[in-house]
Amino acid sequence: MSRRISREKALQALFQIDLVNAKVERAVDYVLEQSVLEQTDAQFTRQLVTGTVEHLKECDEYIVRYAVQWGVDRLANVDRSILRMAIYEMKYVEEVPHTVTINEAIELAKAFSNEDSAKFINGLLDAIRKNELVIT
Fold first, then answer.
1. What are the chain's domains?
2. Taking Cα atoms as reference points, which of 64, 85, 79 lies closest to residue 115?
3. Which end of the chain, N or C, is surrounded by fewer C-beta atoms within 10 Å?
């Protein structure tokens, strides 16, 4: 459960960064100040945010490749942030199985977006998993 909260906090920071071009450190610090996370969970939040931002161009390239007729800019801000974070996590956070990352992204979409977004995110991430990544 604590990793789920870590992902929620990371999503909130990424949303701020995307929407108002907030500074990465400030956005992370702000969302962490608003929560009570264990140090390891706070570190996971920070890793997700900084890693996603560092690999933003690569994550967006995956979105463009797999979101047929949906450019990155056409996606809802929250959906874009969820996808970017999940793609980063699937590619670079080896200790988390891809299926767990996808399920967590779906749950974030259900909580912060809508059911249609959850289905879209599921399909896109599963296609990336099957076609681009070593399946775990």
1. 2-132 (1.10.940.10)
2. 79
3. N
